Amino acid sequence: MASANISEKFLCSICLDVFTEPVSTPCGHNYCRACISSCWSSRDIIQCPLCKETFLTAPKLRVNTAFRDMLEISKKTKQAGEDGGSPARPGDVPCDLCQGNRKRKAVKSCLVCSASYCDAHLEPHRTVQKLKWHQLINPVDSLEERVCRKHNKVMESFCKRDQCCVCSVCLKEDHVGHDAVSLEEEFKARKTMLQRAKTSMANAISDKCNTVIKVENLMMESRQKVEETKVEANQAFNGLVAAILSKKAKLMEVLEEKQEAAEQKDEALKRQLWLEIAELRQTSVKMEEVLKTEDEFRLLQNLPSIPSATNTRHCYTERKSLLQVEKVLRAVVKIEETLNEHMDKIIREVLQGDTEDEAFEEQQTPFDDELEMASANISEEFLCSICLDVFTEPVSTPCGHNYCRACISRCWSSGAIIQCPLCQETFLTAPKLRVNTEFRDMLEIFQRRTNKQVTEIPKMF
């Protein structure tokens, strides 16, 4: 993909061939001098073929020296790149200037050119004086993502306030005064944070596995106690007269109902715990893959959302014997005239569920606290200073401040002076409002995470 993008930059969009005497229009697009001159002379309207910007008269065509030099270098190194160097294999970064299917493995990537070069095509960067100052790094793909779309400069810093990668010009304009560090420093900090999260998640998995074992043991003990109680009750009732047979049947029915309800509850808890364990293990594997990367930019751009390792609260019940066995045994030996009274009392106790609950609650980890504090600080940046609510269709003013499109438009239309509500910068006419794509994308991510947190209601068993 990178190779295709580089090749297209050296093709004239009119003749669809490599540039011949390239010139630039005032709008910044490049054409062959003969192609653009012929195009304008054959039409009544003089406009750029790409962006359709219209000019009253044919503008003066200028030579973009940097682009011309790059084109000459590409032509000179095309033949040199036909031999030498090892071919690119699956997983390698290919050279962007090698043509056809014989692409060789790149040895360096240039952050200024946004291209990767094999050893032969890298030669101009070693010999041409204008190219020696270009910043070369080990070969990586997706170089375009590392360049600031607003200022066309390499993003070498990370703004902690806005949680995004920025270039040197961004630090002087949109992010002036913000706390910023190098990508390498933030990369190390985030990797340490991910390691702590992975450790916390491993502990959570272990705790949940232990809880499953306790639940299984509880179910086995409960089932055994119920079976023992049923045997003892049967032995006692078999020696009684026909007058107490109805009470015996009632007691058996209650025991079966209570046991069935308890087992259904325990089985549901087991299923939920296994689902959570599977999700945590899957997230742990993804974190392991992210931790293996040494590309600080890739890690920061593709940093996965870190879920709470203990996002549910479970409890289960250790039940006492459903019957007060000794009371049953004492009751059956009493005389017939008092038996009905005692049996009614025992059945009432069983129906009331004479149990004690022991709740096993999972505690929130320190890492969860860090995430919640960070989320609280970031959320303030997504509030419009006019409506004091989360941005709706955020736009930026020329002074760099963000507002809802409807809010700032209504503010300017209702006042005689057009100025920024925050910094009070005044404009002669209402300026064109532009969309800050990076801020918009961050807002969408924040809204998705906020909605997810609202729906994740802790469950109690």
From TrEMBL:
Residues 12-52, 384-424 form the RING-type domain. The keyword Zinc applies. SUPFAM superfamilies: B-box zinc-binding domain, RING/U-box. It comes from the Eukaryota. GO terms for molecular function: zinc ion binding. Keywords: Coiled coil, Metal-binding, Zinc, Zinc-finger. InterPro entries: E3_ubiq-ligase_TRIM/RNF, TRIM8/14/16/25/29/45/65_CC, Znf-RING_euk, Znf_B-box, Znf_RING, Znf_RING/FYVE/PHD, Znf_RING_CS. Residues 143-183 form the B box-type domain. Pfam families: TRIM_CC, zf-B_box, zf-RING_UBOX. Residues 244-272 form a coiled coil. This is E3 ubiquitin-protein ligase TRIM47.
